[in-house]
């Protein structure tokens, strides 16, 4: 019998709490900020800022995505696996989704992820976390497969 122990038993509750916070705390903060900013500069100006950041962010995401696509093509033509560029493309996709989400926090996060030096450091952070997860450290539990005969 093949048994997979992903270490999720101890971390399911932690992940559930993180997801709960991400899907309740962030939208609540966004609503709070929208109300506060709207109270200071007016509802129409707040709405205009949200539309402008969304449009500008979409344009930047398109440009960065196109640039990354060109790098992927160049790597493939040289016979090189475009692993870094594929991670860039995924991060740019996430940045675009954040920019399409109404709110100031998500717009700032999306715009920051579109800046290549910041994206580079974010990739390093993700790689470190991924390596920890694979190694079984940092509470991720790792992936362990054992054969039970």
UniProtKB/TrEMBL annotation:
Name under which the protein is recorded: FxsA cytoplasmic membrane protein
InterPro entries in UniProt: FxsA
Keywords tagged on the record: Membrane, Transmembrane, Transmembrane helix
Taxonomic superkingdom: Bacteria
A Pfam cross-reference name: FxsA
One GO term describing the cellular component: membrane
Transmembrane spans: 15-35, 42-61, 89-115
